[in-house]
Specification:
ten-stranded antiparallel beta sheet, alpha+beta, single chain
Length: 436
């Protein structure tokens, strides 16, 4: 028997530590346990959730039979604007929490923070400042686009800021920018390193049905332009959904046949197949987990940022094993949040390289799809909860050290794979047009 056990202490601050003491020495006020989850995520996520704790306390314990918000307010983008500062230069502990093997910021952790910040901004916009009304439940519907414009170093201070730029009846678009402070001689230059657009939808916390959100009144010329651009994107998305129904009538059949022709050679005559191509199914990776209470958000469900973090790391691994060289992240092309994930759910992430691009020889692109399934063995069921699309290239220094480097073309073996591949290509083409 070991008579000198090592005592383990929590590295997190208890929510009770600053609570005032009653006369008997006990805590006179204890933050509800359901408000603890942020402690188990990144320090930025924890800080953001603490910032909106008063709103969350009302969300978690609204008055019995509280009525819904009866009068919509008009907010400006400035009223929801929120900024986060990462003091990487002076806070070495924070720096180590975000460092990756290349002395850059871990993208997966940054995805958590972006989702938490977008959620905080949405809550600010939708709050009616009336504790007697039924609060809204805000759900991440999708990430429209996230682009890494430059490498984010972990030894320079970082700023993350955003605001609501557009609202529909029950939907909200939040735009975020990550900027880094770089020393240039005697000056400090602030450059945009990453941009992201999140779409949230509002639900009545009692009925679960779509609920109207506060209106938005852009004030500056920049805010008005952002609103108009978001409005155009929303209309384009709706048109795209309608146009997808007529796929067979627009010559899509010939594209499907063309893709499947090469795949059939792999299946039927593998010795004659093009060595520069590979079947989509041969690029697959998978992992699984049971969703734990420490991964929940303030509403008691699994935090969307955590799901994005896990999906990113699987996508990164998929690109790595496919290319044979260390990948370099470029974009989150799209993320759909189709259904919530609960504590205790058996979650399976399945990834594949869905297609590759060679338009620029110096920067070939690897497009990776990750699909998250909530699997219930006892019910013999499996439902898609999230779909993620990431784009990678390879690190220039890795490519320079490998003269024989090449990226293979991915081909489908089934019609379902071919359709998925074409849909993703067309969606990426649509996103490119939106960003022009």
């Amino acid at each position: 028997m070991d008579f000198n056990p090592i005592t383990i202490k929590s590295t997190f601050t208890s929510p009770f530590e600053d609570s005032p003491k009653a006369s008997d020495g006990t805590d006179s006020f204890r933050k509800p346990l359901s408000l603890w989850p942020g402690m188990y995520h990144s320090p930025v996520t924890a800080a953001l959730w603490e910032t909106r704790s008063q709103i969350f306390e009302r969300l978690l314990d609204p008055p019995v039979d509280a009525p819904p918000q009866s009068e919509l307010l008009t907010r400006t983008p400035a009223q929801s604007r929120t900024t986060i500062l990462y003091n990487f230069e002076t806070d070495y502990i924070l720096r180590e929490q975000y460092r990756d093997p290349w002395n850059e910021v871990r993208i997966g952790k940054l995805l958590e923070d972006l989702d938490a910040l977008a959620g905080t901004i949405s809550v600010k916009h939708c709050s009616d400042d009336d504790s007697m009304t039924r609060p809204l439940l805000l759900v991440t519907a999708s990430v429209d686009k996230m682009v890494l414009k430059k490498t984010i170093k972990v030894d320079s201070d970082l700023k993350m800021a955003g605001a609501v730029i557009w609202v529909g009846r029950s939907s909200i678009e939040v735009q975020l920018e990550v900027t880094q402070f770089i020393s240039d001689s005697a000056d400090i230059i602030e450059t945009v390193a990453l941009t992201a657009n999140f779409i949230f939808v509002a639900r009545d916390s009692k009925t679960g049905k779509a609920a109207p959100v506060n209106r938005l009144s852009p004030e500056t010329e920049t805010e008005k332009l952002l609103y108009e651009e978001a409005e155009a994107r929303n209309k384009l998305r709706k048109l795209h959904k309608v146009s997808k129904k007529g796929v067979e009538e627009t010559g899509e059949k010939s594209r499907l046949d063309s893709l499947l022709t090469e795949g059939r050679i792999f299946c039927d005559m593998p010795a004659l197949a093009d060595r520069d191509s590979i079947l989509l199914r041969d690029t697959r990776l998978e992992n699984s987990l049971i969703c734990q209470p420490q991964q929940r958000n303030i509403h008691g469900r699994i935090f969307g940022g955590f799901l994005m973090h896990r999906a990113f790391e699987l996508a990164f691994s998929t690109a790595y094993t496919f290319a044979g060289l260390m990948p370099y992240f470029l974009e989150v092309d799209h993320v759909d949040f189709l259904r919530p994930v609960d504590v205790g759910d058996f979650l399976r992430f399945k990834s594949c390289v869905i297609y590759t691009e060679f338009e620029h020889a110096e920067q070939p692109l690897i497009n990776v799809e990750v699909v998250a399934h909530v699997t219930r063995p006892e019910l013999r069921s499996s439902e898609v909860s999230n779909t993620f699309y990431f784009t990678f290239t390879v690190r220039p220094e890795a490519k320079a050290n490998n003269n024989g480097f090449r990226i293979r073309k991915v081909v489908p073996a089934t019609e379902e794979e071919a359709r998925t591949m074409l849909e993703r290509m067309d969606a990426d083409s649509l996103l490119s047009k939106e960003s022009v």
